[in-house]
Amino acid sequence: MDYQKIAGDILFGGDVLDNAARGEFIEALTFDALLRHDVALGQMRWHHIGKGWGPWDLQRGTAAAGDRVRFQVKTKASKQLWTPEKPWQEYDLGHRTYKVVPKYFFRDFDQTVIGECEVHGYRADYFLLAWHENGPQSDPNTYAYFIVPVTDLHPTLAGPVKKIHINAVKARKGHSFAELPRAMNDAADAFLAGMRTPCET
């Protein structure tokens, strides 16, 4: 009996996915697409870091090599399982005033890969924001994907930006699922080429 397929069909096979399942779904399929893109280029640069409440989800390069670039994946959808009258249309960016990194993060991942982590700030270099409007949520091609550098989230007089509305996200350049590997690699290249600034903005 294929237990993984049974569980996968139940958790990720419906037209409307649970919020937690949707995030894991997009995270896993994005990582798979990045790996396939790397294999085609004869490289292996991407790592999946998103376990539990880990600070970020996907990472290109390693801390030891000095080419680490971190992506935090967030998803939202216009239709929820409980069909609220006013669906949540804001992404919680997870800015931390102070929060200790989960102990298992350093226990379960190679320190030469993940490196150090801030106890406050966004704790990523980019957000990958996936938005779903129409079609089955179990199809990654029905989402629009937006790559937002944390350097764009400038602090205001009221403090750091903690949430961003979907309308502000949609004003940015979006990508299809097929375009995502190239777009994320381009973003990582730009970061390493000199766009890096402290991510605790």
The number of helical segments is 6
Overall helicity: 25-40%
Q: According to CATH, what is the topology?
A: ECO RV Endonuclease, Chain A
If strands are numbered along the chain, what order do they take across the biggest sheet?
1-2-3-5-6
The first-level CATH class is given as Alpha Beta
Uncertain residue ranges: 197-201
Shape, principal axes of CA atoms: globular
Summarize the biggest pleated sheet: 5 strands, mixed
Indicate the proportion of strand residues. 15-25%
- Structural category is alpha+beta
Number of domains: 1
Description:
There is one protein chain. The protein has 201 residues and is α+β, with helices and mostly antiparallel strands. The protein starts with a helix and ends in a 6-residue tail after the last helix. The longest helix is centred in the N-terminal third of the chain and has 23 residues, at 19-41. The radius of gyration is 17 Å and the shape is globular. It is built from six helices and seven strands; from the N terminus they run ααββββααβββαα. It has one domain: 3-Layer(aba) Sandwich (ECO RV Endonuclease, Chain A). The chain has helices at residues 3-12, 19-41, 103-108, 111-114, 166-170, 180-195; strands at 46-48, 58-60, 69-77, 90-92, 126-132, 143-149, 163-165. The strands form two sheets. It has a five-stranded mixed sheet with strand order 1-2-3-5-6. A two-stranded antiparallel sheet has the order 4-7. The model is unreliable at 197-201 (pLDDT under 50).
